[in-house]
């Protein structure tokens, strides 16, 4: 095996998407932002499309352009952009990428790019239904849809979609869920009265795709679930697609009382074997995993011994026989007893989204189909 590798199970991605698509009559957009949540942008996109996705979603336009450069022709929506990116908007239009507008200035930037390029823009209007993040505030929405209707009548844009995002869908039954669905319905009615009838209404993220069929509308947008990690308590039959592992780079027998790693926050309590693993916080291993991060070595589970360093961690394996080059698994699907990304998330007080997404570029991606 390689020194460090993230083994990506593309069959798992295909199966996860296929399972979600089988559960809804809506179209499915696989969100592949952030390098496919750390799994690899282009391979993840191909696997998701093979599993039945009909759309792809990226946060930024450069991600979408990379998909187009890889020969992917499926519809793509990008939604996060700032003032000064007029050139980026123009490149998106030239590549046939749908773009989101949440404000008048964004709509103005889009129509300016349209006039300069002569290309009609495919736009998704975003309404803030209660997340208070991206999206038009409810007080500004009537003006935005009125302006969009005018631009559409002028042939400058096509309003392909109207959309929003949940704040609490990962807590089924939370009262904000019903409020956001109602707010979305109201926003659609306002848009309709302004003459805007979007082809696609979309609200459901991974959690809502799995648990909230009344929020599926015309399109669902799973992200983390594509990669086999459930945002809710039930795994819904999803299969985690990433295994993070490394080859043991050193093995040594030491005496009792030896301090391990910076600050000697761990001290050996007996004669024992220490295993050096060439993964550290520069590779995405959380430094908060010091003394708590779970690992799997030769069929047994252990905990990181001492501080997580920039490039390496140490494992105290006691009497277990380990040789240099033996695989050390930080997380995987969990089928054989190895830790999962969720185990790491619980150990360090974060979410599994962060655990897989932060795996850095020094870690070689190895794809299994």
Report what the structure shows:
The structure is a single chain. The chain is of the alpha/beta class. The chain folds into two domains: 10-227, Alanine racemase (TIM Barrel), CATH 3.20.20; 242-368, Lyase, Ornithine Decarboxylase, Chain A, domain 1 (Beta Barrel). The protein is built from eleven helices and 19 strands. It has helices at 10-22, 33-37, 41-50, 61-69, 86-94, 104-117, 141-153, 175-193, 206-211, 341-348, 352-357; strands at 4-9, 27-31, 55-58, 76-78, 98-101, 121-126, 157-163, 200-204, 219-220, 242-247, 250-254, 259-260, 266-267, 272-277, 294-297, 300-303, 313-318, 327-331, 364-368. Strands 2-3-4-5-6-7-8-9 form an eight-stranded parallel beta barrel, surrounded by seven helices. Strand 8 (200-204), helix 9 and strand 9 (219-220) form a beta-alpha-beta unit. Helix 1 packs across helix 3 (41-50) and helix 4 (61-69) packs parallel to helix 5 (86-94). The model has no long low-confidence stretch (mean pLDDT 97).
Rg over alpha carbons: 24 Å
Distance between the termini: 17 Å
Tell me the domain tally.
Answer: 2
Placed side by side, the strands forming the largest sheet appear as 2-3-4-5-6-7-8-9
Looking at this structure, what is the CATH superfamily of the largest domain?
Alanine racemase
Which percent range fits the helix content?
A: 25-40%
Order of helices and strands: EHEHHEHEHEHEHEHEHEEEEEEEEEEHHE
Q: Low-confidence runs (pLDDT<50, min 5 residues)?
A: none
Number of helices: 11
């Amino acid at each position: 095996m390689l020194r460090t590798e993230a083994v990506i199970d593309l069959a798992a991605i295909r199966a996860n998407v296929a399972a979600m698509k089988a559960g809804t009559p809506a179209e499915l957009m696989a969100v592949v932002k952030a390098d496919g949540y750390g799994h690899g942008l282009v391979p993840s996109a191909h696997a998701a499309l093979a599993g039945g996705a009909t759309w792809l979603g990226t946060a930024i336009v450069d991600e979408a352009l990379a998909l187009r450069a890889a020969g992917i022709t499926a519809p793509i929506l990008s939604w996060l952009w700032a003032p000064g990116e007029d050139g980026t908007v123009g490149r998106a239009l030239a590549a046939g990428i749908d773009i989101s507008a949440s404000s008048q200035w964004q709509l103005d930037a889009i129509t300016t790019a349209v006039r300069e390029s002569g290309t009609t823009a495919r736009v998704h209007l975003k309404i803030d239904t209660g997340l208070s993040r991206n999206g038009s505030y409810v007080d500004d929405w009537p003006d935005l849809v009125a302006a969009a209707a005018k631009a559409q009548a002028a042939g400058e844009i096509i309003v392909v979609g109207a959309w929003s995002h949940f704040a609490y869908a990962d807590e089924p039954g939370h009262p904000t869920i019903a409020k956001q669905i109602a707010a979305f319905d109201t926003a659609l009615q306002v848009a309709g009265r302004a003459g805007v009838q979007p082809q696609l209404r979309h609200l459901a993220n991974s959690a809502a795709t799995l648990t909230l069929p009344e929020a599926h509308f015309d399109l669902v947008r799973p992200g983390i679930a594509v990669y086999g990690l459930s945002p809710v308590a039930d795994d819904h039959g999803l299969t985690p697609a990433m295994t993070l592992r490394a080859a043991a780079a050193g093995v040594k027998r030491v005496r009792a009382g030896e301090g391990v790693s910076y600050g000697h926050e761990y001290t050996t309590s007996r004669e024992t074997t220490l295993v050096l693993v060439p993964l550290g916080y520069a590779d995405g291993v959380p430094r908060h995993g010091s003394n708590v991060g779970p690992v799997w070595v030769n069929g047994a589970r252990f905990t990181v011994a001492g501080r997580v360093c920039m490039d390496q961690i140490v494992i105290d394996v006691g009497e277990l026989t380990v040789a240099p080059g033996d695989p050390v698994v930080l997380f995987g699907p969990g089928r054989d007893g190895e830790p999962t990304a969720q185990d790491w998330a619980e150990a360090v007080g974060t979410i599994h989204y962060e655990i897989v997404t932060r795996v850095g570029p020094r870690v070689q991606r190895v794809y299994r189909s």
